[in-house]
Amino acid sequence: MVLVHGLWLGGWSLALLARRLARCGFDTYPYSFPTCRLDLRENAARLHAFAARVPGDVVHFVGHSLGGVVIRATLHGVDLNRPGRVVTLGSPHGGSAAAVQVGRTAFGRRWLGRSIGALLAGEARGLRPVRREIGVIAGSVPLGLGRLFVRHDEVNDGVVTVTEAGLAEASDSIVLPTSHSGMLVSRAVATQVCVFLRTGRFRH
Prior knowledge:
GO terms for molecular function: transferase activity. The chain is of the alpha/beta class. The protein is about 35% helix and about 10% strand. The protein has helices spanning about 15-25, 40-50, 65-75, 95-100, 105-120, 160-165, 185-200; strands at about 1-5, 30, 60-65, 85-90, 135-140, 170-175.
């Protein structure tokens, strides 16, 4: 299983989630990438090369925030010729109103980096459907940096709304009582990831 972190983070942020998924019986391989320096397609190419070296007949992917979008870009129109499922955690598949607000200034665009810039330019919406079952987890506890830049009028995790996290091609989706960053330490999130990777559905 390949774990992919979100904006401004690194593989270290996935340590607790990786430990809990390992207890479920999965071998975990956290992937670190430069979230700001490279654009979405460059990071996708690097992730594809990393995942190709992961051993096993099955390769699952779990991505937090931007990491989930990078996974979709990685599997866009091409796969690893090995089966597996995908779970995204608070990933802004439909864009991010908070990021749009931050990106209105030159400093904000530099702060967000090139991958988010590609997301805001609509690249994620143009990705072809992934040929894997995808599970989408969204959060409903509005605690996060996004609240500093935009007032959401719908359920959100403090950064990404439930609608922004939604994905039409998803096999299943679920909203859990957690914030955006809280997903990384939530036992409920880890449990639901395990359930989806085993069955292709969440436990509702």
